[in-house]
Amino acid sequence: MDVRSQISMVFHLDKCIGCHTCSIACKNIWTDRKGTEYMWWNNVETKPGTGYPTKWEDQDKYKGGWEKSNGSIKLKSTGKGRIIPNIFHHPHQPSMDDYYEPWTYKYDELFTAPEGTDQPTARPISMVTGKHMDIEAGPNWDDDLSGSPVYAANDPNLKGLTAEQKMQLSAIERLVFFYFPRICNHCLNPGCVASCPSGALHKRGEDGLVLVDQERCRGWRSCIAACPYKKTYYNWQTGKSEKCILCFPRIESGQAPACFHSCVGRIRYLGVLLYDADLIDEVANKPDDELIDAHRAMILNPHDPEVVRAAQSNGVHDEVIKSAQKSPVYKFVKEWGIALPPHIEYRTLPMLFYVPPMLPVMTAMDGNAKKNMTEGLFPDFDKARAPMEFLANLFSGGNTGKMRYALKKQMAVRQYRRAVTVGDISQEAANKMLVEADCSVEQAEGIYNLTSLCTFDDRFVIPPANREEAIQMMRDPLEFKQSVGFGLREEPERGA
Amino acid sequence: MIDKIAAFDHLNLFWFTILPYVALFTFFLVTIQRYRGKGFTYSSLSSQFLENKVHFWAMVPFHYGILVVLAGHLFGFLLPGQLLQWNSDAIRLYILEISGFIGGLFTLVGLINIVARRLSDARTKMVTSAADWVVIGILIFQIGTGLYTALFHSWGSSWFAASLSPYLWSIVKFSPEIAYVTPLPFMVKLHIIGAFVLIILFPFTRLVHALVVPNPYLWRKPQVVRWNWDRKKIRTTEFKVHE
Prior knowledge:
The structure holds 2 protein chains of 2 kinds.
Chain A: E1 3-12, H1 21-30, E2 43-47, H2 59-62, E3 66-69, E4 72-75, H3 80-88, H4 96-99, E5 103-105, H5 109-112, E6 124-126, H6 163-170, E7 178-182, H7 191-195, E8 201-204, E9 210-212, H8 222-226, E10 232-235, E11 240-243, H9 248-252, H10 258-261, E12 268-276, H11 280-284, H12 291-297, E13 299-300, H13 305-313, H14 318-325, H15 328-335, E14 352-355, E15 363-366, E16 369-372, H16 388-395, H17 400-421, H18 427-436, H19 441-452, H20 456-459, H21 467-474
Parallel strand pairs in A: 1-14
Antiparallel strand pairs in A: 1-12, 2-7, 3-4, 5-6, 8-9, 10-11, 12-13, 15-16
Helix pairs in contact in A: 16-17, 17-18, 17-19
Chain B: H1 2-37, H2 54-78, H3 80-87, H4 90-120, H5 122-126, H6 130-152, H7 156-172, H8 186-201, E1 225-226
């Protein structure tokens, strides 16, 4: 057992209001530089929709992630055999047109325009070429455009849905959509790291963050093609790749990452998970329908004395273990089983999990009358406006059982709390629902608390970085005694 | 007349003795210094992200072509004896010469597309520096003189092994012998001088990316983990499992 710690995340989609505050917070800190204008390390997509970059989930087009081959797994287009032919020109590399060309406006023309009969206008100009351009796409161009034949209808997750289900999704007045905020998943089996020819991309051992060493990156661009989530980006000015760093300078000083901190809907949770790194290869190689369970199984119980001992002997700091025991992520993913990884079938073992959204289910139009679709205790999730298969394609590798479980439990908690606070449902019926949803009363209270009443400290349990101790391991703290303050670039020879 | 010959001698001395050493000295000093001091600047500086279509027709023929051509030069330099032996059979000589020539043509096609792409695409133009144009210019010059030599000064592979390889080795051994190169045709001399100019420019331009080709990737483990501290030595304090 090789116990390592991983800073992991949960996004509670039922709470996301699609305000893009997270994206702006991130952009202002990290990607407001030349060459990065088009990058959104954090972006929010409307689902169904084509996303950013356009159709990133279509791996027939981008060939990202891993696939099973001869009993093991290999990268779809960026494995060792392909590195030489692909290094000069990568055939599956997205270009700027797949994202969008960043632009600004010539605001000064508002003031300098000569007097005339028309209002002066600020024309859009490209932030790459500085020339006038016609805006044709943006990072959230399909925002709220569910039902659109251009965007929503081309969502790769609609694969496998019946024509009727697809029609339902776009029928007027029955449109349904939800928001899908995305950052780097800081995967356990990252495609970007495995594909990096220079060894610049790496996983930080202590907390599992996936980072790009800017000094080592040579701009071979393999990571961009290899990441199935398209969360590594190419800085066209520096010729280096960049990606979400989970605001590690903030995390190291005990602050939540900017996108987490600024989240208006409070949908984001962050905490440590302990996992068994020996199992990575085995889990990533499981058949599609076993992936979710195997991924969950490699996450270890931080309260188990054996796990704690193994973690300690592996150098996981005591404070980190304590932090893992309080992790909200552990509860959502492991104890409650209501948070699911996005596109587990890409086999990168993402460590960002999503609580699936509760979408309108109950009614359907029957002629001119609204008809209640609910029969029995639970609404029939299979008759939901957003088809179960669609959600399952996104968050459980097509495994509708896992999706139904997560939705059912959330619904049971709602009904249980309704019985407690409103009282129009009998406590008995509510408890029956809980039992049916595999949820104890304590669990229901826990889910309710962490969903609705969670404070800052409940949502973000940030492990101490123990930087001071790390430094002591590498350097003698007295090394710089008598030399602090006024340093010298070159030692004087005189009077030595 | 005698003065003219003397002047030529001085010129030959400059181009084929002094220039090579200046080139090699600059090359080693600046590449190492740049790698140590400004390692960040070692990048392919790819522009595929900005323009994805012509890029294929530029980069693929250029790189494969120039790899064939360079491999041929390296073969002649390192193993002149074996090269002459290989060329002793006419068919094999033709095969070698034709492959080299095709490699040169590929490089030229690639270069033409590179120029066309960098002139026509507005975004790519933005990331094209003056140094890029100098490098492209010299590469075209080298391919031009090289292809001319291959066409009009037949069986270059053989006389490269016989006279240029010993000349290059004499440079390496610090006892330059210009006698090998002085009788060579004008176009060949231009090609040699161009090569040394390219070596001088090499460390100052984007060409350095060729020095950081990622060969260790082929035998490293797929996943890379970096530890900031030695996790076996980390201090642990008394810790209770359930608090």
